[in-house]
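Predicting holo structure, alpha-D-galactopyranose bound.
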Amino acid sequence: MNLDELRLKFSTIYGTRSMDAFFSPSRINIIGEHIDYNGGKVLPGAIELGTYGLVRKRGDNILCLASENIDLKVEVDIDDLRFNIEDGWGNYPKGVLYFIREAGYNIEGMDILIEGNIPNGAGLSSSASLELLIGEMVNDLFNGGRIPRIELVKICQRAENDFVGVKCGIMDQFAIGMGRRNKAILLDTNILKYEYIDMDLKDNIIVIMNTNKRRELSNSKYNERRAECELGLEIIRKYKNIENLCDLEIEEYERLRDYISQDNIRNRVEHAVYENHRVNRTSDALKKGDIQLVGRLLIESHNSLRNLYEVTGRELDCIVDSANEYPHCLGARMTGAGFGGCAIAIVKKNKVEEFMDFVGNRYREEIGYDGEFYITDIGDGVKKI
Ligand code: GLA
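Done. Tokens:
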């Protein structure tokens, strides 16, 4: 990504006056998958891949959007913000503006050009990255930075839930809004209490592995899993007064599990309860520097997402299994919503090239096309640059 080139392109589209630049990261989730909508704990981090954006105030009420990644320009009146399928990616910025205004803050017209270096549909949360990018632009340009970051995070989640219509939890927006260099965020999604944990993996690093399988149809499957969890919660509540599935201790779940007669619902609940427990164990292991244990917990998490939660699929299983077969990989798992997209692996630093060859070859042989690998640091949340 070359910011000077992007500036030139901005000038070509919108004219040469001054402009401001922002960067919004994407995220990985170390562990705690599909439990941010079950009141569980998650352990994500912002990464240094993400979305760059240039912006200029227009002095009117028109929002102009252009992207270097997607050939679709959108121009809308900010006094008439409605979801429109034809506006494609532009619906995310529109949703953010809509809910910023609803929260009582100012919005005005802008010219915007964005360019991301994360592939769309890779499951690294390009949508939350875009939402926070636009949110921080509006915060900086028209509100003097007075929107508290956590409020902005919630506004962006609302844009996705109630404007775009994806019922995601808060993890992605939180990681992208609140990220900090070299730290994972241990977030209790029930009460939004959080703690930064050092991502010191000793002589290992995280490799992101992209299956290049686009996450199509994933939104409907995602919403289906949410509904299954709600059903599970309803059944459990007949026997135990809890607010969220992740309030259940493992022993309580084991005592109550037979009351859930449908196998798939019982499996979803079991995943949520044990995954939540694994998040605590992983953050303890990180604090103690026990990276071997972190790796083993990643593998357990993937198995649970494969067998109990059923959100992995052939491509993710293949890339994760191949990674786990490599001797200097401590553990791998899918990251994000699943159904394609990316996985992460903890790998010995000096073996990374060999690891990528090993996994890349196996993946191509089995699946018939290439996967991709990224190495990136854990970075800061959204900011002006
Ligand atoms: C997506 C959602 C998140 C979370 C993950 C699964 O990334 O946006 O809120 O539910 O899936 O852990």
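The chain has a mean pLDDT of 96.
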